[in-house]
Design a protein that fits this description.
Length: 304
């Protein structure tokens, strides 16, 4: 199945709520009333729902579905880009652009089970296919299986992995990996990290230390800090995300498992509350199932 079909399949329930429950051709006020329920049921959130309804009303468009599409796309862009898009008049990107990370080191954070290690492997493959020289650091030294899993992916994808024995200091490993990346002149280093939840405070302190030690090894890095978030965890995931943002200041989010049972609207509160862009979405377990995020395409899947 093509990745877009997997996305559509995953979003089927939400898209049914949005397309079937709303009497699109009917009386505009009735449409908006039903739409309000449908958007809230899809996890879009109260504030964003009100903004969308307001924009649809203001647009004065006859084609309400088109107006809703535009309003939803805007909600999926962080504030700055949203403002720019509004100014330019809404024009979705014709071609999906490659996501170019800032700098050379990407610190990857997220709680266990969200798909962080798999995502790192997919990212490595994505950039390798685009001619980048990639390095991995197996920074989840807390879990015995953490490093082994990434090493296995490294073998499969032909991407070198820097690792350390279980229980080693992840900040020291990140330091060595950042130095090695610079010394070898490689393009990108993805640093995996632990994601154990039960000792949340220690985890956040540890992540801060990892981030600092990357900066010490290679000033200006990490250029990016990406959070991996499981779409099926909804609002809960968002609360965790805020804690990560407080600790290490996120620059992007990757949302996984959109081929599952997620309510597709949850991407709106993710962008709104974290104020950072969604870089990629995961719609399955194979490498091609990680795709750069495109708001227009996503809304197309939601409203088709
Ligand atoms: P980690 O604990 O965060 O490192 O999570 P893993 O990378 O080990 O992934 C946990 C499970 O989620 C694995 O079975 C992955 O194959 C699966 N997974 C990761 N991303 C996706 C996705 O986008 N869709 C689906 N359906 N499964 C995924």
């Amino acid at each position: 199945m093509r990745w877009f079909d997997r996305l559509k399949q995953g979003l089927k329930k939400t898209s049914q709520t949005l397309t079937k429950a709303v009497p699109w051709g009917g009386d505009p006020e009735e449409v908006l009333e039903e739409l309000e329920f449908a958007l809230i049921a899809a996890d879009v959130g109260l504030e964003a729902t009100q903004e969308i309804l307001g924009e649809v009303r203001e647009s004065g468009k006859r084609d309400l579905r088109e107006a809703v599409k535009q309003a939803l796309v805007l909600q999926l862009e962080p504030d700055a880009r949203r403002a720019k898009l509004r100014k330019l008049g809404f024009k979705p990107d014709a071609k999906k652009s490659t996501v170019e990370p800032k700098g050379h080191v990407v610190l990857m954070v997220g709680v266990n089970g969200v798909g962080k290690t798999t995502t790192i492997a997919k990212l490595g493959q994505y950039y390798k296919e685009r001619g980048k020289r990639v390095l991995f650091a197996a920074g989840d030294t807390f879990r015995a299986a953490g490093g082994a899993q990434l090493e296995l992916w490294g073998e499969r994808t032909g991407i070198p992995v820097i690792s350390a024995p279980e229980g080693s200091d992840p900040a020291a490993l990140a330091f060595d990996a950042a130095k090695a990346r610079a010394a070898r002149g490689m393009d990108l280093l993805f640093v995996d990290t632990a994601g154990r939840l039960h000792t949340k405070h220690n985890l956040m302190e540890e992540l801060k230390k990892v981030k600092r030690s990357i900066a010490k090894a290679d000033p200006g890095e990490p250029g990016e800090v990406w959070l991996v978030l499981d779409a099926t965890t909804g609002q809960n995931g968002l609360e965790q995300a805020k804690k990560f943002d407080e600790a290490v200041e996120l620059s992007g989010v990757i949302v996984t498992k959109l081929d599952g049972t997620a309510k597709g609207g949850v991407l709106v509160p993710i962008v709104r509350e974290l104020g950072v862009p969604i870089k990629f979405i995961g719609v399955g377990e194979s490498a091609e199932d990680l795709q750069p995020f495109d708001a227009g395409e996503y809304v197309e899947a939601l409203l088709s």
